[in-house]
Amino acid sequence: TISHCKGLGLKIVLTQGTYDMVHIGHSRYFEEAKKHGDLLVVGVDSDKKVRARKGPDRPIVPQEERLEMVAHLRSVDIVTLKEHNAPRWHLIKAVKPDVLIMTKEIHAKYTKAEMKELSALCGKVVILNPMATTSTSAKIRLMQLKIAKKFEKAIIPRLTDMISETLTGVKTKK
């Protein structure tokens, strides 16, 4: 499919990531990425790959649903799953995009030598700024904090009362 599109003279753009709990930032990111070419290919990390990188509680949304959500975004043309055990840069080497899109956060993780190697595999590497004020990870942390505060308000006073009653009962029995 990709080679056929290249044969037609279409400019291929590739980006990849987790896309857990798809939000407006992801949609804006794909819209911006699509402006760099004709066909936008999105690699979505498998559940196993996400767990290895982000921990046992991630992803929140299973890979089948993440793939479907990304596929429904209007700027995305092709979606593919990136398996955990795939060799490094497997998708980049398979697609050989004219433009590779990455976030500033991901770009910062690469050395200059790695960026040079990536540039050799692609026509061009474009770094995009975040497209929203928050990320999925930040939203999850915020939800966890809210739950912890609710727990604190509901449970801590009860525990304190129970401990006081228990201690009072112990003192009275002596």
What is the strand and helix layout of this fold?
Layout: H1 2-7, E1 12-17, H2 24-34, E2 39-45, H3 47-54, H4 63-71, E3 78-82, H5 90-95, E4 99-103, H6 104-107, H7 112-121, E5 124-128, H8 136-173
Parallel strand pairs: 1-2, 1-4, 2-3, 4-5
Could you write a compact summary of the structure shown?
The chain has 174 residues and is an alpha/beta fold. It contains eight helices and five strands; from the N terminus they run αβαβααβαβααβα.
What does this structure look like?
This protein is an alpha/beta fold and 174 residues long. Helix content is 53%, strand content 16%. The chain has 8 helices and 5 strands; from the N terminus they run H-E-H-E-H-H-E-H-E-H-H-E-H. The protein has helices spanning 2-7, 24-34, 47-54, 63-71, 90-95, 104-107, 112-121, 136-173; strands at 12-17, 39-45, 78-82, 99-103, 124-128. Strands 3-2-1-4-5 form a 5-stranded parallel sheet, sandwiched between helices. Helix 2 (24-34) links the parallel strand 1 (12-17) and strand 2. The protein is elongated. It starts with a helix and ends with a helix.
Number of helical segments with 4 or more residues? 8
Strand content: 15-25%
Shape: elongated
Mean pLDDT: 88
Q: Report the sheet with the most strands, covering strand number, pairing sense and barrel closure.
A: 5 strands, parallel
Low-confidence stretches: none
Write the element-wise H/E pattern from the N-terminal end onward: HEHEHHEHEHHEH
